[in-house]
Structures are given as structure tokens and as C-alpha cells.
């Protein structure tokens, strides 16, 4: 405390000068209209900038909560939209009253807590599990497009097989021509995948959209996968060599939605009873 008093005493002339300067400035502002207006305009701008900066800092730290809320709201809206779409079909646009059809798909939002893109077989971990109704075999999508499918679950977590997995094949279709094939990553560039088994008479072109076919019980029909970036066809080849630019940038994946197909068990049991289990 003594050092503080000594400091002020040692520089008393300087602090006296500052006090007099402040008083002089205040008297000028108080007794002159022009200076008063300029001062208060400047102080208002300064205060507004400080308040805006503080608000920006608060908003930045609240972004995580906002993103979670938006992801959950997006999942709810997808569920409602899918229920509406399933309640109509395109023969006579007749209404369907079967709740199993209308409520065929449910969507559960989840946050990505682990992700890899640099391996041959990449996986994604999310913060939702069996307690949230998630089970192996369910599809995972993002706001951009298809992501993968659930491989294993615990009570609070699930591990997804990413589309960036050399062992994962996703039934797909070229939207313009309706020719179907299979998306399979070759383990090289995580921005691109390969579309296989498109016959030479299909005539795909760069820019064609590739979506899920809906031919299996995992993905609904029409989920965006990507856009054809390169088209190749050998002289004697029966199938095209197609390079697809993936819609989802897996290096920035933060949230996913898990699609729960409420008719999956019925379809699987019927197909197994008819054609036998997959080999």
C-alpha cells in the first residue's frame, strides 16, 4: 500500500495535469453545443461498438448450443415432411390411412464426436445410441447428403460406417437416366467416390446427379450422394468408370441425422423368406 501511495505522490504533477485536462474538456463539452454534439455522437458510437463486440463474443460461445438445437429441429422437420410425402402416392394421389406407411421414417439428430477420412476404412462416432432408438443398419445423412450407416451401438453412442470406406457399397441411381449402380470409395481422395456398374448404353454425362436408389431398406429413395465429375469408358468395357464428387465434405462433418425405417423389419423378413438371407 505504501508503494502505491509513493507512486501517486511521485507522479502527482502528472495526475494533477490529467485531472485539469479532464475538467477543461468537460467544461468545453458542457458549454458549447457543437463540441457537445460531437462528443456524445462519438461516445454513442464507441458504446455501440463495445456492446456489439460483447454481443458477438456471447453469440460465438452460444453457437454450439444453437447448432444442436437447429440439428434437432431439422430432424423434426424432416420427419414431418417424410410423413406428408408418404401419405400420398402418385397413382391417383390418393390418401393413405395406414400409420405404418405415413410414419415410415423417423429422424434422430446426433453430433459427430469422432471422424476419420485418411484411412481405407473410415468410421464416424456420434453421441446417440440405443437409448435414443438407434440400431445397426440405420442410414445416416447430413444436410448435404448421404453419410453412411450405423454399424454398432451402445447405450449412448453409435459408430457409423462412412461412405469413405472401401468395404461399403451403397445402391445408387443416376437421377436423369434412372440407371442404377453402386457407390464405392476407392480409398484415395476423400472428396470423390466411384459409381460402378453403370452400363455403356446409359450415356451419363458430367454434372449428372447421383442419389440413393431406395432398393435396399437402409436409405430412402432420392437422398443426394453427389455429382458426376468424370466419365470414362474403355473401348471394350461394359460399364462406365464414373468419378462422383461427394455432396458431403467429410472433413467438416459436425452433425448427422439417423434415419429410422419403421418398415425395415417387415421388408427384411419378407425378402429373406422369399429369396433367402444375404450371402
What does this 3D model show about the protein?
This protein has a domain at 109-263: Rod shape-determining protein MreC, domain 1 (Thrombin, subunit H). Helix content is 35%, strand content 29%. It is elongated. The chain has 6 helices and 14 strands. The protein has helices spanning 2-10, 12-31, 33-61, 63-86, 99-102, 264-275; strands at 88-89, 94-95, 105-115, 121-126, 139-141, 146-153, 158-165, 170-174, 180-184, 192-196, 209-212, 224-232, 241-246, 255-261. With 279 residues, the chain is α+β, with helices and mostly antiparallel strands. The chain starts with a helix and ends with a helix. Helix 2 (12-31) crosses helix 3. The strands form 3 sheets. It has a 6-stranded antiparallel β-barrel. A 6-stranded antiparallel barrel has the order 8-9-10-13-12-11. It has a two-stranded antiparallel ribbon with strand order 1-2. Residues 89-102 have low confidence and may be disordered.
